[in-house]
Write a structure and sequence with these properties.
Chains A, B: Pathway: Amino-acid degradation; L-histidine degradation into L-glutamate; L-glutamate from N-formimidoyl-L-glutamate (transferase route): step 1/1. The structure is a homodimer. Helix content of chain A is 35%, strand content 24%. Chain A has helices at residues 17-28, 54-71, 100-118, 137-140, 144-151, 193-203, 240-252, 269-280, 291-296, and strands at 4-7, 10-11, 33-40, 45-52, 87-96, 122-126, 173-177, 182-188, 213-220, 225-232, 258-264.
C-alpha cells in the first residue's frame, strides 16, 4: 500500500458484455486490480474502477483506451449519456501516498501518448486542465461526438494532444485528474421534501454551504422518508463528519432527526479514519496502527 | 485479506538482539508478516507480533518456539517479568474471516506438536483452556519457571500436552487463543486523580461497568492532566465508542471535559469501522466498500 492511484474510465459500450470484458482484460494484464464494473444499457456506457501503482495504472489505462478504439465504433453509438468517444473519460485519482500533482502528470503523459500513438484527439480536464474553461467535464463534452466533429478545428476546441480531427471510429477522449468523490446520503425522519431541500441548500457550496459539498433533496417513497444526497468532492477539506453534523444541526430546527446514513460505492480508508479521529478526539492516531494497513505495507 | 490470524508470542530474552532476530527470522520463513517487536532489557523479555493465514501462522509459531528452545536457557534467565519458559506465551488472535473456534483449534494443534516433537510441556490458556482455572494466564504461570519445576507432577499442574517434566533449558510454554485487545486511553481536562479513578471504576467490569473493559486512573504529570487508561478485551461486544461516550458521560458530572484520546499499538480495522458506523449512523456499510480492503481482497 505504498503509492496507490485509482482510475475510473468510462467507455461508450453498455450492452455487449464481451467488449467491456475485453477492455477490462487489456487493463488487468498491466498488473492493476479491477475493483468494480457497472454497465448501463440505456446509457450504453460502462464504468470500470481499478487501482494500482502509478506506472501500472498508466499502462492499464493506455491498454484499455487502445482496446476500446479497436472494438467500439462511435458512428453507430447511441445512448442516453453524453459522450465524445469510445473511451470517453479517464480520470486518475490519488488514493494514498500520491499527490494530486503526480496524477496530473500521469494524465498529461497518457494524453500525449494517446494523441501520438493512437491518433485520438485528447482533452485534459479538472485538475489536469490546461485552461480554466476545460476544468468542467460538461463543458469539454459540449456538443458530444457528433458536434465536436464539426467544431474541433475551432481554436477554442483544439485538443491538448493528438490530431485536430476526430478519430473516425473512436472519437475523442477526455483525460484528467480529480480528487476521490464520496457519495454520502443522510436519511431524515420525515417525508417532508421541503425539509430535505432546505437542508440540501444549507449544505451545498453554491448556496452558501460547505465548499466541497454538492447536495440534493431526494424522496425515498417506499420508506416514507426524505434524504439529503451529497457528493463530497474533497474529503480532506470537507470531511464526512462535518457534512453529517451540519445536516443534523440544520435538521434540528425542524425537529427532524437523522435516522441513518449510507456511503455509496468505494471510499478511501483515509476518509473513514479522518472522520473517526474527529469523533474519538484522537490525539495521535496513525493509519499504520490499523493492523491490516501494517500487514499490506 | 481472506483469513487473517494474529499471533503475539512472548520470549524470555530481552537483551541479546541476535537471539530475538533469529527467532523472528525463523517465523518469517513460514510466509507470515512481522508487524511489531518490542524488547525490554529489565523484563528480559521480547514480544513479537505477526500475522498471516492460519496455517502459515501455525507453522511460524512452531518454528519460533523451536528456535527459542535452541537459543534460550531458562537456567540462566533473570528478569522482572513472570515467565515459565523460553517461548513463554503464544496466543492466537482472530482478526478477520476467522472465528475464535479456529484459533482454539490452532492452539491445540500447536500444543500437541510442541509437546510431542519438542519435548516441552504445554499449558492451554484463555479461550483454549481445558479447565476453568487455566483460563487466566497469571494462574497458569504461578510459581514461574523455578516453582513449576517442583510442582509439575502434581495433578492440578499436569500439562495439557508433552512430558510431565520441565524441558531442561526451555521450561514450559503457555499456548492459547484470545480476542484482540485494544489499548484505549482517554485524557481528561483536569489534574484531579480522584476523578480519573472514579471514572475508571465506573467503566470497568469488576466494579459494575462495561463487561469487557479493564480500566485504571493514570496521572499524566507533564501534561497536568489525568487519564482513564483502558483495555478493551472484546471490541465486538464492548466497542470503542461505547467506552468513550460512557467516560464522557461520567466526566460530565464533575464538569470535566474529554480533551483527547489515544489508541496504543495495533488495532483491527473492524474495530475502527464498527465505531465509525455508530457515529455516522450507517445503515448498510460493508468493509468491502473500503477501497484498500477491496484492493487486497
Amino acid at each position: 500500500m505504498s503509492k496507490l492511484v485509482e482510475c475510473v474510465p468510462n467507455f461508450s459500450e453498455g450492452r455487449r458484455f464481451e467488449v467491456v470484458a475485453a477492455i477490462e482484460a487489456a487493463g488487468e494484464k498491466c498488473g492493476v486490480k479491477m475493483l468494480d464494473r457497472t454497465m448501463d444499457a440505456d446509457h450504453n456506457r460502462s464504468v470500470i474502477t481499478f487501482a494500482g501503482e502509478p506506472e501500472a495504472v498508466l499502462e492499464a489505462a493506455y491498454a484499455m483506451i487502445l482496446e476500446a478504439r479497436e472494438r467500439i465504433n462511435m458512428e453507430g453509438h447511441h445512448g442516453a449519456h453524453p459522450r465524445l468517444g469510445a473511451a470517453d473519460v479517464v480520470p486518475f485519482i490519488p488514493v494514498s501516498g500520491v499527490e494530486m500533482a503526480e496524477c496530473v502528470e500521469l494524465a498529461r503523459r497518457l494524453g500525449e501518448r494517446v494523441g501520438r500513438e493512437l491518433a485520438i484527439p485528447v482533452y485534459l480536464y479538472e485538475e489536469a486542465a490546461t485552461r480554466p474553461e476545460r476544468r468542467n467535464l460538461a463543458d469539454v463534452r459540449r456538443g458530444e461526438y457528433e458536434g465536436l466533429k464539426e467544431e474541433i478545428t475551432r481554436p477554442e476546441r483544439r485538443p491538448d494532444f493528438g490530431p485536430v480531427r476526430m478519430h473516425p471510429t473512436a472519437g475523442a477522449v477526455v483525460i484528467g485528474a480529480r480528487k476521490p468523490l464520496i457519495a454520502f446520503n443522510v436519511n431524515l425522519g420525515t417525508d417532508d421534501m421541503t425539509v430535505a431541500k432546505a437542508i440540501a441548500r444549507a449544505l451545498r457550496a453554491k448556496d452558501g454551504g460547505l465548499t466541497f459539498v454538492k447536495a440534493l433533496g431526494v424522496e425515498l417513497k417506499e420508506r416514507g422518508q426524505v434524504q439529503v444526497s451529497m457528493n463530497l468532492v474533497d474529503y480532506r477539506r470537507t470531511p464526512v463528519y462535518r457534512a453529517l453534523e451540519l445536516v443534523r444541526l440544520e435538521a434540528a430546527r425542524y425537529g427532524v432527526p437523522v435516522v441513518g446514513t449510507e456511503i455509496v460505492g468505494l471510499v478511501p480508508l483515509d476518509a473513514l479514519l479522518g472522520s473517526l479521529e474527529y469523533y474519538l478526539q484522537s490525539e495521535s492516531f496513525r493509519r499504520e496502527q490499523v493492523l491490516e494497513v501494517k500487514l499490506h505495507a
